[in-house]
Structure formats: structure tokens, C-alpha cells
Amino acid sequence: MKAGKVILWVSAIVMAICICSTGTVYAESVFLKDGSIVEGDIVKETDKAMEVKLSDGRKVTIKRQEIIRTLVNTGYKTKMYIMKANRDVVPVYIVEEDNESYTCRIELQSADEFRIKKADVLFVSKVPPQDFIDEEVQKKAAELGIKKQYTREQNLKWRAPFMRFGYSTIGSYADQDIADAYTESPAKTVLIDIFPWRFRNDSGNGFDAMVRARAVENVHDEIQPGDPRTKTLSKLYQITIYESFNTKLNIVQICGGVRYAYNMFYGILIQPYVYGLM
Known about the structure:
Layout: H1 2-22, E1 29-32, E2 37-39, E3 41-45, E4 49-53, E5 59-63, E6 67-71, E7 80-84, E8 89-97, E9 101-105, E10 114-117, E11 121-125, H2 129-144, H3 152-155, E12 157-159, E13 162-168, H4 176-181, E14 188-195, E15 198-200, E16 206-223, H5 228-237, E17 245-261, E18 264-265, E19 269-270, E20 273-277
Antiparallel strand pairs: 1-2, 1-6, 3-4, 4-5, 7-8, 7-11, 8-9, 9-10, 12-15, 13-14, 14-16, 16-17, 17-20, 18-19
């Protein structure tokens, strides 16, 4: 019985040795001295060489003297950010680590490596430390109700352009003679305002570039010579009128300039503005 157990154990040990000698060992990445990294399954190892099966099924033999290290994990592929005690931030790929230092590469496929002592490191992060710090500061400021202070330039925000259309039959003329002559004939006014560039600060106040196209039409169908407006119209058009007549007044403008808008809020938003056009 004891002899049978001995034979069984010996057989198990021999089988384990055979499996270790010929079976697959998963060492996903083999680092070479020229900087390249071979990824695959190590299927055979000797003192002089290593045979690796690639993902496409091919097998390659690599001399031991060409190998720097083998890694099972793939964490080295992630770019890390090391903040040193002197506040320098170094973006690196950490290809090896021991109790005292990190072995790093700036370019993953480069053979150039260097070490950073852990005693000189404040922390290691997957995100740029400044972004991490800014995010934590913003969270803390939000908790305390502190608003970040921006410069005037930072406060300015570009807003989408827009266009508006207007139509009216109400209005008056600055020229008193025209106003008197066309009082009984409503002026038809059409205008289009275009704001191609708009800038606002954090409060919603700011300047707009503005273009306006405006057309006004005023028509008298028929006026008799004895009508009180005839004298005014004769003066306006510098003619002598002896018989009934029709008149038409057209004004067309295209102009551009700037507009300043100011926001006020009293339960509802009120936005008065001033503009200058030429």
C-alpha cells in the first residue's frame, strides 16, 4: 500500500514537471532590449531562448540575451502621471516597480528607461494631477458656496448669432413736412435685424455686432389739387400740381453698427439695450 502511494506521488510529480516543461505559461508581454514588446503566450523556455506564440498563431524564438523582462499584467500600457516632491509632473509608462522605485518609459516602444525613487514621489495618478487638483478644488468650493472669480476676458462668452423680422404700420417721420403730408396714409415698415457676433459676460450683459435692413413704403392713391396736403407735397417734390395725383414714398436703408444689451431681473427678465448704426 505504501509502495503504491509512493509510485502515485512520483507519477504526479513527473507529470507536473512535464506540464511545466511543455505547457503554456501566460506571460503576455516580453520586453526586448531594442525597446520593442512582444505579446503572446510563452510555450517553451530554455536557458538560451524563449519561444512565444503570437496572437496570429505564429511562433517566434527570442534569445535570452535580448530580453529585459516579462510581464503577465498589462497595466504598463496605461499612461500614468507621477507628481514628484518638487511639484514636477512626469507623464510615464511604469514598466516595472519594486519597493524603492518605479522603472519608467516616456515612450512605450522606446528602450530608454529611467527610475524614479518612491521617496521622491507625492502620488501617482491616471489623470493629470492639475486636472485632479482643479476638480477637487471646485468640489470644495461648491460645498462652501464659493464662486470662482474670472477675469473679464474669461467671463466673455460667445453666443449663437440670430436674426429677427419686424413689420409695422405705425410710425412717424422725423421730417415734419413728410409727417404732415403722409399723416392719413399708414407707413408700411419692414425690417430685418441680423446679429452675427454676440458676446456676453457671466451676468448676460455685452455687445453685439448688428446689421439692419429696413424698408418703408407710404402711398396716396389719389389726391385732388384742393386737398390741404397738396401744398406740402408740392413743396416736398418741388413741383406745381394742377390736377389729381398719386404719391408714393419709399425709404430703403442698410446699415451696421453695435448694440449693448443689459440684463435686469425682477421676477422676469428685462433687457434694455442701446445701439448705434451707420
